[in-house]
Amino acid sequence: MCISISQVSRFRTNLFLGSSCCERVHGWFKNNSTPKLLNIRSSSVNGKSRWVRRNVSTTTQGGRSNTKSSVLGGAVPVTRIVDAESTAKIQQQQPFGNLQQRLAENKDLSSLLTVIVSDLETTGLHRVKERIIEIAAQDLAGGENSTFQSLINPGVPILNASIHGIRNDMVCRPEVPRMEEMIPIFLRYVQSRQKPGGYVMIVAHNGKTFDFQFLINEFNRCSYEIPPNWLFFDSLPLARESMKSVDATVKPKASLSALGDYYNLVRDGDAHRALSDVLLLSQVFQRLTIDLKLSLSDLVLRSYTTSDLIAAMAKNKKA
């Protein structure tokens, strides 16, 4: 089978961000602030990825409240165009040294740290042999262009479409980038969300043993360095801790879908599609931090650097 570069799929996000979910952890929202609901679509023209905000009206349901919000007015013109060919490879920076401890002690942490929830879909479970076929991310701070999603041409046949619904014909189109083309686009997206001189925390559910390993291996395969100001946070241990506190007599159900049901959250899209999982995890993650009374400093201290993850991967390989 011949796999060619495929078409970047459109994405739509109904993003609900309110002070009740984020205020404790991030300090980015004022009391009684108005919830924001965004609809963002992507398209690809001549190899350039776009993010466009459009109108939407929907209902978001949560464990504590039901809030109906809408964005009115005309369509917003394209505000950012990312061209992979014009993006230079990020240069290696000096190591930070004990980054988590130093960053957690910063009194102005909320003005330095960007928290981005992410998810990947892959051709299989093997972290080295299999390939990423979809990536999505969402900056919890919200705002325009806060959400990113794209299919990726893995260069190999997709044999597990029954899990995520991503078929070979969906990635066998000329507009969809391969991983070596997607990495600079994704780096540019993260840079666009990063605060000046700040740091980025990438959050994923079961990220330590799955998403982050795929990401590290794909960056390495494509000869890219993961920026040293990135931290990685696995939300699965938080979920297990929170669910265990609810009922310590049974094994906690900490899957993303189970957490969505527990918090009475409505999923936007199908399970095991990257953007749908990101939108759900964005809400679940914020509720977990509130339930466990975790500050942003607490999250930083529980995060991993790239070196931490590489060391864990090497240890597991030897075991």
Automatic annotation (TrEMBL):
Molecular-function GO terms, alphabetical = 3'-5'-DNA exonuclease activity; metal ion binding; nucleic acid binding
Any one GO CC term of the record: cytoplasm
Cofactor entry: Mg(2+)
Under the heading InterPro entries, the entry gives:
Ribonucl_H, RNaseH-like_sf, RNaseH_sf, TREX1/2
Exonuclease domain location is 114-294
Record key words, sorted? Exonuclease, Hydrolase, Magnesium, Metal-binding, Nuclease
- Name the CDD domains for this protein: DEDDh
Q: Which domain of life is it from?
A: Eukaryota
Which Pfam family, any one, appears in the UniProt record? RNase_T
Family listed = Belongs to the exonuclease superfamily. TREX family.
Q: What is this protein called?
A: Exonuclease domain-containing protein
**What is the organism of origin for this protein?**
Brassica campestris (Field mustard)
